[in-house]
Amino acid sequence: MQRRAVFSLVNVAVAAVALVVLFAFPRYAGYAVYAFLGWFVVSIAVIGLARATPPVASSSAAPSMPGGRPLPAGGAQRPGGTASPPPIAFCVYCAGDLPPEARRCPACGHAVLGLT
Q: Which of 6, 18, 25, 48 could covalently link to 36 via disulfide, CB atoms 3.0 to 4.6 Å apart?
């Protein structure tokens, strides 16, 4: 089971215990609330540290996409690569097709957005 799933289940259990203490033992409600908040902060910090340190992969492994599938051939780049995004092929105002180097939409006359 993943670490995040375990911490989620433990967080639910700690919240349930805190609620029981709040209603069954009101004298200790302050301690229960602060214990719950403390545990919550610690679990968020542990999950954050786990995300900050990615697993180390072998340098001889082929590059892959997030699902573990290999990158397709033909120049596809990983996120953060140097390839520029493809130009917008339709007008965002009327959804008409645009010629490759159009400055204005031939259908509605709006200026083409330069989102590259």
A: 18
